[in-house]
Amino acid sequence: MTASLSPDQARGMRHRAQLLGGSPLSPREVVDRAVALQGQDLPAVLRAIALRSAPGTTVGEVRAAFDSGVLVRSWPMRGTLFATTPEHLASLLALTGTRTLQSMARRREQLELDDATVARAHEVAVAALEHAPQRRADILATWEDAGISTKGGRGYHLLVHLCVSGVAHWGAFAPDGSEQFLTLTATPRETDTDAALRRIVAGYVAARAPVTLDDLAWWTKLPKTTLRAVAASVDAIEQAHLGERSVYLSSPADAVADASPTGSAERVTLVPAFDEWILGYADRSLVASGAMLDALVPGGNGVFRPAVLVDGLVVGTWRFSAPRGARRRAPVLELIEPVSDATAALIDDALAAWPHD
Q: 210-266 pLDDT, tens per residue?
């Protein structure tokens, strides 16, 4: 018989699946398990990986995983930056790269980037990258020197095209840690796309369940018919009901234990900006009200703020500020949903203990 989940049960399962209580895993293992994690905001994704890793894991250790090449950052799908592994990047691009490039065709036309210009930009970039990894500003300057204008968004578009084509990715960090070097991609493109899609679907579900088919299709931008058939073929995926919706779950054997403390009436969790807790799903209503979603993305500007969760529900946003003359940054909390005094105290404790800066 198909199980039925309550919203509270679903949020609890997601909290465990998302490793928001921590895990015994290394940064590479966290990302490998999740397939990919939202990476538009570089400092935020480093924190997202650290908080899901073994206790005591620092942002510096996550950065070191990029420096060693076991983690990379690129546009594996939807024209959106993600942190992933070289192997998953190869698989994702084999499945989505052509679609992504096709979806960018109109923009290329608007930017007056014809096929010959794009091919020349690739040739120039590869020659530079074969010499050494490049900062973003350096590769843009190299294109300019070659007579390829990067103005008006052309440079960004050429960078995305280069990476979606599987030529390069963002890899090791510059010495000051502020940015990543653009690096030639050595991992060959996946050839067994059927096996790759099964791995990706299984990983997506394991790291985010319960999820709907709509969630999976939104995340991958692949056809629902294909995804439905793949999900049905993966032994580790089960189905359940959440209200009127059918959802996918990962089998218990694939679960990673939630390392969060037990026995507390309420569990407070802080997540960084652009976290998969919000952006990993097409429908975010399970974890946030309409008013809360508006506060997370003020003005619908596409910039997702860090979130405060209470038992999986988003109740507010948070950040740190550095007042003039202050020696330490101070937490700034904006609560949207009402909480008890006891819960407010737990949130203050969590802010004071936040370790991932």
A: 999 999 999 999 999 999 999 999 999 999 999 989 999 997 644 444 444 444 457
Report residue 321's pLDDT band, with 50, 70 and 90 as the boundaries: confident
If one counts every other C-beta atom within 10 angstroms of the C-beta of residue 201, the result is 26
- CB of 334 within 8 A of CB of 318? yes
**Cis peptide upstream of residue 175 (ω within 30 degrees of 0):** no
Query: How far is it, in rounded angstroms, from Cα 65 to Cα 171?
Result: 9
Distances (CA, A) of 89 to 6, 76, 170, 252, 274: 35, 6, 11, 27, 20
At 271 the three-state DSSP class reads strand
pTM over 0.90? The answer is yes
Structure-token pair, residue 208: 């985010």
The predicted-structure confidence for 185-194, as pLDDT tens digits, reads as follows 999 888 899 9
How far apart, in whole angstroms, are the C-alpha atoms of residue 209 and residue 323?
40
Residue type, 85: T
What distance in Å separates the CA atoms of residue 75 and residue 83, rounded to the nearest whole number?
9
Residue spans of beta strands (DSSP E) within 255-329 = 268-271, 307-310, 313-321
On the 0-12 / 13-18 / 19+ scale of CB atoms within 10 A, 51 is buried
The backbone torsions φ and ψ at residue 300, rounded to the nearest 5 degrees and listed phi first, read 60, 35
Helix%, strand%, coil% for the chain, nearest 5: 45, 20, 35
